[in-house]
Amino acid sequence: MKKKRWLLYTVFGLVFYLLFLIIQMPASWFAWGLNRYTQGSVRLDPIAGSLWNGNGRLVIYYPQTTPHDFGRAEWGINPLWLFAGRLQIHWQATAPDTSIYTTLRLGFGQTQLVDLDISFPAQSVSTFYPAATLLSPKGQVRVRTAKLSIDQSGIEGNGEILWNNASSSLSSVQPLGDYRLELTGAGKTTHLKLTTSRGDLEFTGAGQWQLATGQIQLSGSATARARAEELEPLLRLMGNDQGAGRRTLMLNTSVPPATWLAQQDRPAAVAPANPK
Q1: Beta 98-107 vs 110-121: how paired, if at all?
Q2: Is 16 a domain residue?
Q3: Would you put residue 245 in left (φ > 0), alpha (ψ -120 to 50) or beta?
Q4: For 150-159, what is each residue's pLDDT tens digit?
Q5: Per the domain annotation, does 173 fall within a domain?
Q6: If you ran DSSP here, which 8-state letter would residue 233 be given?
Q7: Domain range holding 215?
Q8: What distance in Å separates the CA atoms of residue 95 and residue 268, rounded to the nearest whole number?
Q9: Quick one: pLDDT band at residue 269, thresholds 50, 70, 90?
Q10: Would you say residue 96 lies in a domain?
Q11: Which residues, at least 6 apart from 113, have a Cβ–Cβ distance to it below 8 Å?
């Protein structure tokens, strides 16, 4: 009887010790896991805190060799979601003129972005997409979605990209206006719709983003609502007048998604150093 009691005490002791070790896991475990899951695209350094609640400097590598500093990030992990086979992370990062707030849910072969709200200066777009340097964009960009699911079959959900107080060095009219790009995920194809909220220059259009290739095709029109003479040099760059000051708007470019988002079924390719 005493042997069984001591065995029971030993088992309970080991369980509680294991729980203690899990609770006290350092933040380096989170940084290591994030680095591995994103194939080195998202990194945290330096870091502080624990696996469940911590902070660190957020650096995103896109393309893979180009670092972008998003300032100090904080995260919190709800351990109860582990019983549902998922990892839920509350995430926020702040830097001058830049902020990120979202809940990230990671499951088997699927990533979900819940209540995503990202805001950053429009000129930052050029660091991710060099072709935008020709426009020298200004203003503030905001990316929002209530829920977006990404897996090997594609993207499901809705989101929007807002460009407020949009302006460019190519025009003396500043700002040009406020613009909204709606995104509707439908598997491998994400549908796009461009509208104008306000401003002297109106943009409208529709198109698609192919997740597998990153190819974006959008067609529409650009029309001066006011200050037509001042906007004429910019409109002339878009092509000939199609009547009533309307110019044809065509966009055919490629913005490939991060590999770890587009191919959720593949194992991580980066093997970072073991966490301490």
Answers
A1: antiparallel
A2: no
A3: left
A4: 888 888 999 9
A5: yes
A6: H
A7: 109-262
A8: 29
A9: very low
A10: no
A11: 102, 103, 104, 145, 147, 148, 150
**Cα 44 from chain centroid (whole Å):** 16
Encoding tokens for residue 227?
């200050």
Which CB contacts under 8 angstroms, 24+ apart, belong to 39-48? 39/258, 39/259, 39/260, 39/268, 39/269, 39/270, 40/64, 40/269, 40/270, 40/272, 41/258, 41/259, 41/260, 44/73
d(CA 68, CA 124): 9
Q: Which residues pair with 102 in a beta bridge?
A: 91
The pLDDT, as a whole number, for residue 79 is 80
Number of domains in the chain: 1
Of the pLDDT bands very low, low, confident and very high (cuts 50, 70, 90), residue 240 is confident
86: enclosing H helix or E strand? none
Structure tokens at 223: 């029309």
Residue 237: pLDDT band with limits 50, 70, 90 = confident
Residue 120: CB atoms within 10 Å? 20
- Contact predicate 206/194, CB 8 Å: yes
Would you call 25 exposed, middle or buried from its count of C-beta atoms within 10 A (0-12, 13-18, 19+)?
A: middle
Average pLDDT, the chain: 83
Amino acid at 234: L
In a domain, 221, yes or no: yes
